[in-house]
User: Fold this.
Amino acid sequence: MIYMKYFIKTFGCQMNTSDSERIAAFLEQQGFSLAEKNKDADLAIFNTCGIKQTAENRAYSMINNLRKENKDVKIIMTGCLANRADVQKRMKKSVDLFTEIKNFQTSFEKLSLCHPELVSGSSGTYKSGEMLKQVQHDTGYLSIIPKHTNNFQAYVPIMTGCNNFCSYCVVPHARGREISRPADEVIDEVKSLIKKGYKNVILLGQNVNSYASQVHKVRKVHQVHQENSDTIYFPELLKKINSITGKFWISYVSSHPKDMSDELIEVTAQCKKVCEWIHLPLQAGNDEVLRKMNRRYTHDHYLKLIQKIRSEFKKHKPGIPFSISSDIIVG
Ligand code: SF4
Assistant:
């Protein structure tokens, strides 16, 4: 039996929105089309968020209601809740498949919903044109060319996961450790967006300023091939994207204050195409609370970063207004 209609319900942050754009592209590559009404769908994807209890509760009630209304619909839960044992126990009667986003393609095949002419075997090889290039890294799903939700602004994920384990946050458990996309793949994606006329490129990651991508190089020295690898960090990636020809602007979220280097602040202020905006989550202004949150910086460090950001923008873009935004947990 071939299931042909799908819908995706996305909760939470820009990263989930971006992931859903890739899921949509993948499903349409498999022969699915978007259901006009959710009740007509053969397949429902819930891309969940575990940051707020309200978002969590809404996901549970939407899934349970859908299951009551439609016994035949296949339901997949992905995103931040999908990996939690308590959630799986609670929702196992309503959900057909729980999968981490990075395993979406291979897990999806287990549901046997794919059109047999479009999927070859169980190894995750798909029709050419679907992926930006042959995937050789753990962020494989990020290589899917996404189905963007508008033609002006595009999210471009550059890394996923987090190594920080802030005490209040589920992300390291839900998405695993940090993995950065290869720089050339990110650059190819941005170039292709600019060719299509996109103007606003938003680089995404749980912690963009710890981006680090290995570049394998072969050099010929005195007729001998020598192999080594260099690491590209976020400031260099930003400079490379800034140098792409075209009229567009770049921004990035989210940054961790402990990884916000002077070099990154300087590059942000110097690059003409990078917006005069830095989002730097503070979370708390009290050092003891920051320690309990496992944030690994002090309020004094944060204030010094703000001073540095102000002075670099004033130096490199005099007279141009800039903004600094933040997140603070208040209860
Ligand atoms: S740095 Fe951000 S994503 Fe990582 S654990 Fe802390 S709050 Fe969560």
About this structure: Residues 162, 164-166, 169, 171-172, 206-207, 256 surround iron/sulfur cluster (CB under 6 Å). Confidence is low (pLDDT under 50) at residues 115-137. The CA atoms of residues 12 and 247 lie 30 Å apart.
